[in-house]
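Hi R.,

Here are the chain sequences for the assembly we discussed:
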Amino acid sequence: MFKLTVDPRFGDINAMKHANSIAAAMWFEHARNPVFRIFIPDLDLSHEKWNLIMARTVYEYNSQIVYGSEVDIHTYISKIGNSSFRITQEAWQNGEIRATCVSTVVHFDFITKKSIPIPDDIRKILEEHLQEENAGN
Amino acid sequence: MFKLTVDPRFGDINAMKHANSIAAAMWFEHARNPVFRIFIPDLDLSHEKWNLIMARTVYEYNSQIVYGSEVDIHTYISKIGNSSFRITQEAWQNGEIRATCVSTVVHFDFITKKSIPIPDDIRKILEEHLQEENAGN
Amino acid sequence: MFKLTVDPRFGDINAMKHANSIAAAMWFEHARNPVFRIFIPDLDLSHEKWNLIMARTVYEYNSQIVYGSEVDIHTYISKIGNSSFRITQEAWQNGEIRATCVSTVVHFDFITKKSIPIPDDIRKILEEHLQEENAGN
Amino acid sequence: MFKLTVDPRFGDINAMKHANSIAAAMWFEHARNPVFRIFIPDLDLSHEKWNLIMARTVYEYNSQIVYGSEVDIHTYISKIGNSSFRITQEAWQNGEIRATCVSTVVHFDFITKKSIPIPDDIRKILEEHLQEENAGN
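And here is the predicted structure of the full complex:
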C-alpha cells in the first residue's frame, strides 16, 4: 500500500465548506504516481514510453472532508487482469474513510492505440501491492 | 436534456495530448448548473438554501478528447428515487460519445446533515428531463 | 477584442462564496484560445508546431465574482514587442470589471528552446486586436 | 521561511510536457496555508473568522517544471504594510528557481467588506518570516 498525506488547499474547499469532488479527484490522481512508476520508472511522458490510460473511475463520497486537517490517501491494487488492472484508493481524515476512488487502468500502446498484456515482471510488482478492498468499497 | 458546449482549454490537455480526466470532470460539473437550478433557482450557496450533495460519480473514458475541437456535454436525469436522483452526462466530440459521467446526487439538509425526500413540484420538473441512458452507459 | 462568456462552476466558488483566484485563472486561460489560433490555427500541440510560452502573468482581483451570474471575459492585445507580446483580459460580472489578467507571452521554438521574432503576417493580425488598456489596469 | 515539497501530478503537466501555469498556481496556494494559520490558527472558514483576501498575484515562469522530480516551494513574507502584506514564493526544481509568485494579501473583514489594520501580535509573527526577495524577483 502506498501512502500520501495532503493538506487541503484553500481553493479545494467549496461554498459548503467541504472539499469539492474535483479536489478529491486531484489528490487521488496525485497519489497514483507510485503506481505509474511501476510501469514507467522515470515517468517519461513520451508516446513511446508512457503506457497507461484511464478507462473508468468510480468515486464514492462518504462524508465531508474539511479544511485545516490532513488527509491520508491510501493506494493499493485491488485486481489484476490480462491487460488492465484496478487501483483502489481511500481518503482518510480524522480516523475515517471519507471518500474512495476505484480506477480501471489499461496497459496501452499510444503508438498503435491498442491495449497490451501486462508483462510478468510488472505483474509481480503489482501483486506485492494487491489487497482486498475494505468492506463497503 | 440540457446542452453545454465547451472549447477545451490549453491546460486541460495532458502530455498524451488528450483531455485529462480531471478536465472532463470539471466540464461535467459545469454542465450540472441547470440541474442545480431546478432545486435552487438562484443558486444561493447558503447552508440554509443549498440542498444537494454528491454521493457517487462514475466516469467512463471511451476515447480520447482532443484540443482544438468543441465538446458538447449532454445532461439528463436517468433515475429519480425518494431522496436521491441520478444525472447522466455524455461528452460528445466529432460525432461520438468520448466520455460519460453518472452522478448520484442526494437532496440534503446541510443544517441537520440528513437526506430529505424530493418534493413533488421538483420531482415533476426532474421527470421532464428524465431519459433512458444510451446503450453502453 | 475577443469575448467569451462563462457560467461559474459550483467548484469554482470557495468557502468565502466567491470565485477562487485559480478559477479565474482557468477562465482567462480558456479565453486565450483565439489568440493561440493566430499563431497555430489548428492548435496543433506538437513541439514542432506549438510556438507560445507564458513568461509572466499578473492578476488583479478588484471585487468578488459570485456564483449564479455569467462572467464575460474580454481579451485583447495590449503590447507587441519583437518576440513577445502582452495579452490583457478583463472579467466582467454585473457591469463591472471584477478581475484582470495581463500575460506576457513569448513566441518560442520548443525544439531549440529559444525565443523567435514574431513574423510580419502574424504581427498584422495581432495589431487588429491591439487596444489600449483600461485605466487602472 | 516555510517549505513545502510537491510531486507534480500527471494532470499538472501539459502537452508541452511541462507544468501548466495553473498547476503552479495551485502549488503556491497550497503552500500559503502556514501564512493563513498566522491569521486564523484553526483555518476556520466562517465569514466571522476568515480575514484574508487576495488583491494581486504576479507569477513569473523562468524555466520549465517537469514531471517525475520534486518541486520545493519556499514561502516568505517580503513586505508588511498597514492592512496588507506581500508573500513571495519560489518553486525550486533541480537546484534552480523555475517559477515565482508574489501575492498581495489584504487583512479583510468579510462582514463589513472593509480592509482592517494588521494587529501588532500578528505583525510580530509576520516579521519573523520577513525576508528580502531574491535578486531578479
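The first strand of chain C starts at residue 2 and ends at 6. Chain C is about 20% helix and 35% strand.

Let me know if anything looks off.

Best,
T.
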